[in-house]
Amino acid sequence: MSTPTLPPGLAIQKADERIMTLNVGPQHPGSGHMRIIVQIDGDYIVACDPDPGYVHRGEEKMAEYRNYVLNIPHLERPVIHDSCNILYPYVLGAEELLGLEISERAKYVRVIASELNRCVYTMYWLAIYGIFLGHSTMFMWPAGDRELLIDLLEKMTGARVTHSYFIPGGVRNDLPANFEDVCLRQVNYFEKRIKEYADVFYDNPILISRTEKTGILTRENAIRLGTTGSVLRASGVDYDVRKKEPYDVYDELDFQTNVLKSGDSYARSRIPWLDMMESCRIIRDALQKMPKSGSVRVKLKPNPKGILGSVYKRIESGRGALGCYIVSDKKPEPYRVKLSVPSFRNLIALPHLLIGEKLGNMPSVYWSLNYWPVEADR
Amino acid sequence: MSVIAPNFKLSEFIKSILDNAFWILLIFVLVGVPAVMFILFFIEMPVINGELLTPFLALTWLADPSRTLPILKAFMTTDLFRIAAFPGFGFAALIAAGTIFVERKMLAKLQLRVGPFYCGKVEGILQLMGDGLKLISKEIIIPAKADKPLFWAAPVLFVATAAAFVALIPVTPGWVVADLDVGLLAVFAVIGFFPIITILSAWAANSKFPFIGGIRALFQMVSFEIPLILSLLGAVILTGTLNLSEIVASQSSFPWIIFLPVGAIVFFITMLAELERIPFDLPEAESEIVAGWLTELSGMMYGLVQLGTYLKLYAFAALFVVIFLGGWNGPMIWPPFPEEILTEGIVAGPVTAHIPGLPVFSQEVLNGILMFVLKTVGVIFFILLPRGVFPRIRVDLLLDLGWKKLIGLAFVNIFIALGLLYAGILGPGGIF
């Protein structure tokens, strides 16, 4: 029997007097549900080994034992703040496998819910980014302004965070009466509020001096490492699934993608904030173009069976391109569901960014990757 | 359905209270009163109206309330009162407690939330007391490999040093615990003691995060001590004394901040760094190193360090007031003591009460206290404000700021002071 080999972070290495190993997490205010093993020489990080997996829940395996509709409540658990978006590719794929045609109004309602949810997620992310940099006002303001959109989503779906709103065949229920006016008012106020964040946070000289030119991810590396979403766009790559492979009605809506060239953690933190303003634009546009009446839901047979085949769908979530691969074998349950999540793909860049940085840059670089630990573990 | 005390009975509860009261009274009468008499017998007592105060006379206020004020005034001349109550620890702790409350409520208003709300009915005013009780009742856990004597000593030493700092601050004319001729030098000596305590505590914990926090605190305090000392020298050059009371007295017509604004700005920034407040809270940077050098401290050890921190905050704000804002000087807004109470007594219906010993404080002293407290609270407000506005700075930027910019500005301040002195505008023999 051979000697057991330890995982890289746990292996006992040749002790160097100058190197200190720090276990940042899982019980650490700056880690989330994961562990980052960093080795520091003085104040400089010489090695970094992210260690996710503390919140693995086997969502993909669970999906093989439930039918296409029952899969909905548990598949949104990995990112409850972005629950509409994580369900979106699964629902698109299931519709194709079940052979459903959904109405135009349902498509618009989905887009509105998805964009509202993106803002809700980004506000939560921004709150934590603020507190990671020691800016407690930037923790409280997004957490408070997020309530505006949560109220809207509650009116739409009936739940504050885990909406379970998207189903194969449309959305679960129609919009409430007078929703358009309320939504327009709340979204306009929300946009006004997030513009104020520039004064207190994004234009703050201390923030700029701390995050500019740190954790630089070049354009080549961003493509080579397979990062997505805001990380990719902050490195100067103009890639947004909503533009490149439009799903539902995104090709009819008027919006643009935000791209910054510098690739440092300041740019990575600024892109989601700019995206929120684009989301507001999309919501206003969609409210205008949406058909005012019509069905939003296709009546499903009980226990619908999929066709023999597989489908891969992807959408742009709050963190980046989120893909879902479903294999069906003519049973009510899918044969296999695979979620390709942006968090895990963005985390891959972390060791490349942290080496050579100062320890004080660790939280800002780590959280600027737009990473959600629970989603990466699934 | 109560689950807190299922066997609660009111009669037994009252009985237990009466029992406790009986035993406390018995112990007080049999041990406390003799002990007080015994101590008073050996203490050198003051003279009131040509009559030596004896322990017996000191306790006669129980029988004759009109003797209360003279005895209180006699007690106020003792060092014990100065150290424990007015210009010393008690006064500073009161302002520190107020600071914590104001900080919480002000920050809450800034961040669109309510802050402490339930404890104490009115706007959560007793929240601090609740927090203190919680800290006292918590278990103190010490790491197995810690250096126990040093680890225990650090919080106590921290509070003691902060209290020593408080003792040097002149609050109002004649009211200072230690009126030293080298007062400002003593301040520098006390400030120089804080990094030693910090690094000793961090090292004694024998843990990684406190160690990094301690090293950061050492970096920060040592590199900001030099601009701090240099920024205060301008006022020393202009007044020609190190005595803090005399520095305050020299500002009776205008505060030094008018002529030395550069020094005041440098001192304010270095003060934030010495106090480890945002944006300079690197030694306690939560998202990087948990709680820095406070990580392993638990229960009341942590509470003591927090008490010391806020005493230090008060002392630094008071030092800013003393050096740059003119201390107790200010317009006389306190109303004078009504003389007819002394001559005619207080008429309360059919009785006329003559109270010997009034007034307890003179008008100048009370006005001085008012001015001093107003200015100190103002400075404390500006110390608290950056916490709602700025993120945390990084170590290299901090050292860059301390060594390159602030020291240069402090020298500019000294040159301004020297120029004013040699031009004959200010200082001994100057125009003003």
Whole-number total of structural domains of chain B: 1
Number of domains of chain A: 1
Name of the CATH architecture of chain A: Orthogonal Bundle
**CATH domain class of chain A:** Mainly Alpha
SSE order of chain B in H/E notation? HEEHHHHHHHHHHHHHHEEHH
Strand order, main sheet of chain B: write it out.
1-2
Measured by DSSP, the beta-strand proportion of chain A falls in: 5-15%
**Radius of gyration of chain B, whole Å:** 25 Å
Number of strand elements of chain A:
8
Order of helices and strands of chain A: EEEHHHHHEEHHHHHHEEEHHHH
Q: What is the rounded distance between the termini of chain A?
A: 34 Å
Q: Spans of chain B of 5+ residues with little confidence (pLDDT < 50)?
A: none
Beta-strand residue percentage of chain B: under 5%
Decide which structural class fits the backbone of chain A.
Answer: alpha+beta
Structural class of chain B: mainly alpha
Q: Largest chain interface and its two residue counts?
A: A-B, 32 and 29 residues
Oligomer type:
heterodimer
**Mass-distribution shape of chain B:** globular
Strand order of the largest sheet of chain A: 1-2-3
Rg of chain A, Cα atoms, Å:
21 Å
Description:
Chain A contains 15 helices and 8 strands. Chain A is of the alpha+beta class and 378 residues long. Chain A has one domain: Cytochrome-c3 Hydrogenase, chain B (Orthogonal Bundle), CATH 1.10.645. In chain A, α4 runs antiparallel to α5, α4 packs antiparallel against α14 and α5 runs antiparallel to α6. The model of chain A has no long low-confidence stretch (mean pLDDT 87). Chain B has one domain. Chain B is 61% helix and 2% strand. A two-stranded antiparallel sheet of chain B has the order 1-2. Chain B has a two-stranded antiparallel ribbon with strand order 3-4.
